[in-house]
């Protein structure tokens, strides 16, 4: 009798919820999970996006290892007071193995002097406050031995320019939240980690002011890789955290080598 594999198929038949899994990094994570043989539940505030994502993930012409029985999706609005909506969502999903939080909104690159209390709260609504509520409401449904992977941004460590202070503050807060949750939830047999992408070419940038976009493009061109990150590349960091059962409380940065400074000649 041949030995069973130890390092492949770790996610086969695992049930993974990807909040924000209908576009960008979230969709890339969902796609990679389907390739791994996992079952995936995706969400978005836009019902049409949910329908489209489920169709693409189930279509063998577009998705390797596609299987409609392993893909489902639900509309879920994560802006504002969303705790009741999250509770209803997870009741519908039932028991599952891993939670991936990739939900985001357009980055509010607003100078501090132009912020008000309401705009500050709105800036962190989806990316920070709703992430906390998602963890709170998901935990009762997560199997022991499962995990949670949050998403922040490398701006928490290195702001990219004027107007990014508040965005950077919430990003840094997610790093601390990850470490705190990893300790808090360890007694329940759950791991918590976080992925911190740098510049990634996704749909979320569509509404960004031209000046901010131009700055990001110039910064990405100077990095050692000389390019934006692509969603399918960043997805591998999420899969690593789902698979490495010895890792918790960590944030993995994937940002084109920007921490090294500009590449020679840039």
Automatic annotation (TrEMBL):
Keyword NADP: yes
SUPFAM superfamilies per the UniProt record, alphabetical: NAD(P)-binding Rossmann-fold domains (SSF51735)
GO terms of molecular function: oxidoreductase activity
Key words, A-Z: NADP, Oxidoreductase
Alphabetized Pfam families for the sequence: SDR (PF23441)
Stated family: Belongs to the short-chain dehydrogenases/reductases (SDR) family.
PANTHER family per the UniProt record, alphabetical: DIHYDROANTICAPSIN 7-DEHYDROGENASE (PTHR43477:SF1)
Protein name: 3-oxoacyl-reductase
Organism from which the protein derives: Tilletiopsis washingtonensis
Organism lineage: Eukaryota, Fungi, Dikarya, Basidiomycota, Ustilaginomycotina
